[in-house]
Write a structure and sequence with these properties.
elongated; four-stranded antiparallel β-sheet; 10 strands; alpha/beta; 52% helix; six-stranded parallel β-sheet; 16 helices
Length: 417
């Protein structure tokens, strides 16, 4: 007889590469792109008892997974993005068990963001999780963790002042523009990239600038046109990007290209231009800084400037951390109780088998069984199952003996959930 296997947190890991140890250039080197998900998932699915999802944003690339061989998972990841695993390990922080859960909840709540209280991160987490769930890389444990992260984020957002003021990189860019430029209605602003960050940037610019002169570009023209129509802005073809950039005062780059789309040779004009690169990896080549007429800021630059205004949020951190501790305890209790699920399901299946056998026997004896009687038998099975579940949860010190007794008594087989 196979032994029943509980599902708990003992093999849960979080591998984090973030701005804490890696600058913009390094983070870009280890970025994980959506087009990698399917191939990577196929490799992971060939492993036994391994479940994972990856989060890759401008500030971090993180792996959240359950496995018995974390080193092998890291090697598969590094091969997928074509980097040396030894170099990757220089910049990562490894969390395990409760510490891994805590790290994930801190990330979900914006406490690990460059701009503390950036609640946009939870939307990115949900998006990345869906990509891996689609390819069967996740499981009930990771899904519960995701939902706990969502709940934690909401609770902190609505019960603390940690989201006061600047909360996103898109607004950080706008904040910089507002504080470093005058007569903004006369400035020619170009936005390259109309994804979520690009759209958010548009909204914030329009809110704070009276009659802004904004032109949008996107590799897919229809997407740029859609944003332009929504906000009543100008739009040009992506092929006109170089000409548009050198005729602008401010250029915001919010694209997801794997290499720079603006290089030093594109900026041959002597007109002063401020370039704000919100992309990771960098989509504006750092060599443009060699020009005296070019000002370039990336996400690290913006974060450094904005964090000086976050004193109020820092005061709220202890309250947020208290909420996180509560959510960790709830998750651990769920995880501990979940280890009883295999025996509970196996026991219920055995009761269902006995019930069906008795119903067939009665039918053979030509006895008529009503729907009410069938429903009653179902309720009895569920009630007996609940009794076992409640006993295991409320008497954890007796759980092992009880599980062994029921397994032997009913000859229960392994039942995975």
């Amino acid at each position: 007889m196979k032994k029943l296997q509980p599902n708990n947190i003992k093999n849960f890991y979080a591998i984090s590469l973030s701005f804490v140890k890696a600058d913009t250039e390094i983070r870009g080197k280890f970025s994980f792109f959506p087009e990698f998900v399917e191939e990577f998932s196929n490799k992971i699915n060939s492993l036994s008892d391994t479940h994972i999802f990856i989060l890759s944003t401008c500030n971090r690339t993180e792996l959240y997974f359950q496995t018995e061989n974390p080193d092998y998972v890291i090697d598969i990841f590094c091969k997928q993005i074509k980097v040396d695993s030894a170099e990757f390990r220089k910049y990562i922080t490894v969390y395990r068990r409760e510490e891994a859960i805590k790290h994930f909840l801190r990330v979900s709540a914006g406490l690990e963001s460059q701009i503390i209280g950036d609640f946009e991160i939870i939307s990115q987490i949900k998006t990345w999780f869906k990509r891996f769930k689609k390819h069967n890389c996740t499981n009930a444990f990771l899904e519960r963790l995701l939902n706990t992260g969502i709940q934690t984020s909401k609770k902190i957002k609505y019960t603390t002042a940690i989201s006061t003021g600047v909360t996103s990189m898109s607004y950080a860019a706008v904040h910089y523009i507002l504080t470093h430029f005058t007569q903004l209605s006369d400035k020619k602003i170009t936005l390259i990239g109309t994804g979520k960050i690009g759209k958010n940037t548009c909204e914030n610019l329009i809110k704070h600038i009276n009659n802004p002169n904004i032109t949008v570009l996107n590799r897919t023209f229809s997407k740029a046109q859609e944003v332009a129509q929504t906000f009543n802005l100008k739009v040009v073809n992506y092929e006109q990007m170089q000409e548009q950039v050198i005729n602008s005062d401010i250029v915001i780059v919010a694209t997801g290209a794997s290499k720079p789309i603006i290089t030093k040779k594109d900026l041959h004009s002597n007109q002063p231009i401020t370039l704000i690169d919100l992309s990771i990896p960098s989509n504006v080549c750092l060599s443009v800084k060699e020009y005296n007429h070019i000002t370039l800021l990336n996400v690290d630059d913006l974060s450094q400037k904005i964090n000086e205004t976050l004193e109020l949020r820092n005061k709220e951190i202890p309250i947020a951390e208290g909420i996180i501790d509560e959510m960790i305890n709830e998750f651990i209790i769920w995880s501990e109780n979940r280890k009883y699920a295999p025996i509970i399901h196996a026991f219920k299946s055995d009761l269902e088998r006995i019930k069906e056998h008795q119903l067939k026997t009665l039918k053979k004896d030509q006895m008529v069984i009503s729907e009410e009687e069938t429903e009653l038998s179902n309720r009895i099975v569920q009630k007996i199952t609940n009794r076992l579940a409640n006993y295991l949860i409320t008497n954890p010190e007796k759980a092992d003996d009880t599980i062994n007794l029921f397994t032997e008594m009913f000859q229960l087989q392994e039942y995975k959930v």
